[in-house]
Amino acid sequence: MSSAEIAVQVFRKLESEDLRVLQVIEAGMSKHEFVPKELILKFTKFSVGEVAFRLNRLSNFRLIRRMRGAYVGYALNYAGYDCLAMNALVRAEILEAFGKPLGIGKEADVYDALSPKEERLAVKFHRLGRISFRQTIRKRGYTTERTAWLFQSRIAAEREFQALRLLFSQGVAVPRPVSQNRHVLVMGMIEGAELAEYKEISEPKKVLKEILQNVRKTYSKVGVIHADLSEYNIILKPNMHILIIDWPQYVTKNHPNAQQLLTRDVENILRFFSRRHTLKTRLKEALAYVTGIGKLVT
User: Which helix (H) or strand (E) segment is 9 a member of?
Assistant: First the structure.
């Protein structure tokens, strides 16, 4: 069972005292890998018996981890962090109910959800701790080995929300950003499947053109490069239009490796369409098009 599944199952069972203990542990983790029980007592202002009861309850719900050594301490796990974000989004009247998982990946879980107005939404739980430190730092330059996994994931969600707001406002084909709290991002509903999952596309040339048009708009109008673009983060919707997803690793065109990253993005897409759909497009011409200095010939 994933962390998000645990959180969704237990969230409605949590009481205000449970959430207060989780919040105190979260705050304490800025200075402690495991927050001493004495600090939890101090900042919750609960009795010894109440704190013991709540910690045991949260442990049974699989929302916290306990460490016994020189002292007894507690830390949130991803399910506990999920519950805090979910609570904030419910209280802000962004979310009302959770549905089924839409996708479970190496770096994120995405769930179907409903707003209080019964609008379907997609909720993305960032999970950077599922890959190694070395891979995370390589792919996402804003992280360091000194940053705890939970808070690395929060930074990823903040960056992705920032990118979506910029891109969506300029008409780039990305999910509509709704809200963000901690490591959780709420977006408009994502319908369709990854481009890689389609064995056949009725009009591959049209789809490739739309992708390159959006890369051009992203680069020329917004000054942003995806920096990890491939067939695995382009959604092909039922109407055969696209959405480009997964933006936390984006860079601006002023980044020292901007041209290298843009070239890799475009090359990945051209290679996929050449291999899967036998479309031959010259990389030089595609790059001239997406940077706004040439026309697209496909």
Answer: helix 3-10
Tens digits of per-residue pLDDT, 72-85? 999 999 999 999 99
Q: What percent of the chain has pLDDT over 90?
A: 84
For 242-257, b/e burial (b = at least 16 CB within 10 A) is: bbbbbbbbbbebebee
Which residue type, as a one-letter code, is found at position 244? I
User: Is the pLDDT score of 132 beyond 60?
Assistant: no
The DSSP call for residue 294 is S
Look up the CATH number of the domain holding residue 69: 1.10.10.10
Q: What are the distances in angstroms from CA 54 to CA 17, 45, 49, 60, 158?
A: 7, 13, 9, 10, 30
Mark which of 137, 155, 188 sits at the end of a domain: 188
Instruction: List the catalytic residues.
Output: 228
- In whole angstroms, what is the distance from residue 298 CA to residue 282 CA? 8
The amino acid present at 115, given as its one-letter code, is S
* Residue 197 sits in the same domain as residue 277: yes
Specify whether 209 is located in the same domain as 167.
no
Q: How far is CA 266 from the centre of its chain?
A: 22
First-to-last CA distance in the chain?
A: 45
Of the candidates 162, 188, 214, which is a domain's last residue? 188
- For 46, 207, 218, 245, the CA distances from 240, given in Å and listed in that order, are 56, 7, 20, 16
- Over the stretch 25-66, which tens digit does the pLDDT of each residue have? 999 999 999 999 999 999 999 999 999 999 999 999 999 999
For 50, the enclosing helix (H) or strand (E) is helix 48-60
Rounded to an integer, what distance in angstroms lies between the CA atom of residue 185 and that of residue 110?
9
**CATH code of the domain containing 271:** 1.10.510.10
Domain span at 64: 3-80
pTM: 0.90
